[in-house]
Amino acid sequence: MVNRRRLTRVTVSSDDEDETPRPPCTRKRLRLLEEEEDEYSNNENGEKQLQIKEEVPKSSQRVEDATPIVEDATPVGEPIRFSRKGKGKRSHYESFMFNGIQYTLEDSVLFFPEGGSKKPYAAIIKDITQGSNGHVVVTGQWFYRPEEAKKKGGGNWKLHDTRELFYSFHRDEVPAEAIMHKCVVHFFPTHKQLPKRKDHPGFIVQKVYDNVGKKLWRLGDKVHEDAKQQEIDVLIQKTLQRIGELPHVEFVEIADDVHDQVKGKKA
Q1: This prediction's pTM
Q2: How far apart are CA 214 and CA 193, in angstroms?
Q3: Fewer Cβ neighbours under 10 Å: the N or C end of the chain?
Q4: Are 201 and 187 in contact (CB under 8 A)?
């Protein structure tokens, strides 16, 4: 799997969350793809017992009469399909609950990244599964921030708007408990005028990033396989249906901003 993103819990500012409300703060156990360190302590009988380290939000520290809430993600409804066999059997669901919030296929969400210096990762939920161990895992289709999308020849692309994300077809499986909260992502062709942030808060996407070839394409470039191109067209239509039609603007090519179209072969 290419470029697996590493996730953990971090503290982020409201700027990183891009005008989307956070769910109520609770004490949660986050299962990572990498196991957390374990520590042992003596119980009242003097016997050693295993304890799992958990991060306690500042808002719940030193509150003696507070009962901490430990919550795992749980599927909602009946499975919509099954995959694999035996011990590896998986049940697939349309939605799940976590921290009192219901998440559904095709929701855009933010994930806690590894390291406090990084901004949250953004993705679209493309699959929701539960294995025999009861853990809920989501498949995220990732967005890239311009500063983290690498160019084929080295370096990164310029940031033209603080709301900007690049769409990609890169997918990874992630523990459901790594989700921060939902977010809003708008998809606009480059010939459309962007709406004001105060009128339509959220991230904006106008380009598609090829994380394997390290190339960048305009959202309207017809260079992708039919299924991928249809996926992009649907996202654009959903945005325009949600916020209405936008004025056209004269397109101005920005040097070294997008990859030149290659005739014939599709990505």
Answers
A1: 0.71
A2: 27
A3: N
A4: no
